[in-house]
Amino acid sequence: MRRTIAAVVVATTTASLLTALPAQAAPSQITFDLAVGTGPLRYGATGFLYGLGDEGIPDETMLAALKPQVTAQKAPDGLQHPNGDALRIAPMFKRAGGRDIQIYMQDVYAQWPYENLGINDYLAKVETQVRKVIADPYRSSYVYVPFNEPDQIWYGGDLNRLLADWKTVHQRIRSLDPGARIAGPGFASYRSADLRTFLTYARDNGVLPDVMAWHELGDDFYSSWHLHYADYRAIETSLGISPRPITINEYARINGDLGVPGNLVQYVAKFENSKVDGCLAYWTTAGGLNDLVTRNNQATGGWWLYKWYGDLTGNTVAVTPPSPGGALQGLGAVDSAKRQARIILGGNNPASGTYDTNVVVRGVPGYLGSTVHATVWGVDSTGTNPSGGPYVVSEGDFSVTNGQLTMPLTGLRGQSAYQIILTPDSDRTAAVTNRYEAEYAVLGGSARVTYGTNSGYSGTYFTEGYGASSTASTRFVVTAPSDGYYHLSLRYSAGPYPGAPAARSIRLRVNGSNLTDVALPGTADWNTWNTVTTKVYLPAGISRVEYNAHTSDDRDAVNLDYLGVAATSGTVTAYEAESGTTLGGTAVVTADSAASGGRYVGWVGAGAANTLRFNGVTVPAAGRYRLVVGYANAEVVGDHAYNNNIVDRYAEISVNGAAPKKYHFRNTLAWNTYRTRVVDVDLVAGANTITFGNASTGYAPNIDRIQIAAVLG
Length: 713
Fold this sequence. Notes:
It is a single chain. The chain contains nine helices and 39 strands. By secondary structure, the chain is an alpha+beta fold. The strands form nine sheets. Strands 17-16-19-14-13-12-1-15-18 form a nine-stranded mixed sheet. It has a five-stranded antiparallel sheet with strand order 21-22-27-24-25, with no helix packed on it. The radius of gyration is 27 Å and the shape is globular.
């Protein structure tokens, strides 16, 4: 189906219509050559410095959807910040698919810059940390970072002393942990001459780093990354050193980059095209994936950029931007098995402006056809506020001539990023912003997209491969504006299949938990489509929704077209913390006009006796329910030059007197700002009790109210 490519709409003011418009610059050109592969995807730019705060901070879904690779965190039991302990966040990071956890060993110290108590004091602390790592079940995932910005801290102007101490610390770590991976030197910026001196000394003394690390925090990244990278690799070659993996374990400027898709895409593109790892810099608060996440479970515009990045499959391809050091950058990947190519691009100087560009795609593979369908999506910067998600910019069909096509894009926003999905010209309906097409979802097991001869589907095709399979999976990532019930409407076909019953079913999994097997009545044939709706309570923000094969008798032999998500109503019962509850010890009711009932309960915790118990929490049937906790928490510890040392308090929650479970609650940044955290609890039919406490020396958050909702409405 041929449609005309639409331009991005740019608002103009009345004043601009009354004056002569300046001459417009000619469109730039960025080229992607699908015939020139540059290797497997590394996803290396998806890394964080203190991006994880505690277990559940941020919500695991926010991390798992991004294909995380590297995180850099504080030393075990370190004093630099109140959260972000490498060993404590490791279980969640590894569950989410993370690869490496770098340990900032100097963050064992409390002050910034680090207090310098001498190398012997530091060596004792290094030994303690290494012994903790050796005893940890995730030992093989850790990378030691002995020094952080030593060109400024402890050793400014004294490279020789740094070299001697590097050798001492490196050898001490290796003596305790022979298989240790060690990263360094960790300079605050790219320092060519000092890196050459460092590597020469390290080579000659047998203390080369296993991972090369430095920081890219300045304006020069934009103009000079390609020069830094090329120079470093040339130094290695000249010294006869085998290529080290590179981690830029702090990247992005202190102002203007974090959370801004149009700026961050330049880092993502350059790091992926260079096949290096990077960690977003820690300029604000811990536990929010460096401003990709807000309110613990909601995405900023920047998060969606990294989601697109994680959705790339296949191999990366050669990219020629307008200039290596220019603002407009991009990356692309082609997946022959999925018969799709994807492009991510963005960037403008100034970021506040708009620009036009011609996207040239060369080496178009034959399986995309002589006419290629392209859908362009955009995502805007939202600062630290929640994003509504990507939107459709334009859609159209493009003729391929001599293996090449050109897509003119106009009025692109400098702070936004853009994704282009190229498929065969098989579209049947226009893309819809709030509809999640199965052919664009993450696929697992035997699930596949074939772009065959079927008809009646939405979008450009559908997912198949569920017949004769127990592994097929179609994985959507959806966004909800608020806590509540939503209709998940799955469009599917279930035609005749050898050995399969007429009535089919598929297993629904949400945020890592199997919810139900959804009944799917059979359809007359494979070109007839039906929709079945399941009502599910979703938390505000991002959720992972999967439809999985689950049988061996082909009751799940179906094709999936798309998922629709729409808010609906359902029974939610609220219980105020100050009414009908039992307070223990120091727990007390306090007035606050911002609380839902004008009051909350505080001073819960800091001792096992100080508790809040909700009584008479009544449900009609035994089962799993959503417990929606309304709370406030603005505790801060100490002071820092630029980091806000927030504390993510935890509560121990016990249902009907059973052993309590610990849940962390993301800091709300003000005591009169109330947010929610949704956790699952198992309740008995009739009346239940739910008790909040914290037996440690720390307090639980202030509790406003709880709400109870069935998982399935």
